[in-house]
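Hi R.,

Here's the chain you asked about this morning:
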Amino acid sequence: MSVLSLGIQIVLGIAAFLCLFRIFKGPTIADRMVGVDIMGILFVGITALTGILYDLPYLIDIAIALALISFVATLALAKYLERRTLDD
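And the predicted structure, written out as tokens:
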């Protein structure tokens, strides 16, 4: 592993810790939602970085699927917070 990839992993780990802090200490549900959304983006980045570093191309496919699921979940949660139904 190169120094750059190690640095990226450290930055992603610190960002994940800060997101966990926002999820647990968020004063509103919207702050917690943003923390969960960013955590999903970080998981996509960690999965893609691992796939690139260890030459595992199937992890890139998993990262893409995880990004799509995270996006749909964020939309559903935003609709729920607006007190609308999901079929609007």
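Residues 29-53 form the longest helix (25 residues).

Let me know if you need anything else.
M.
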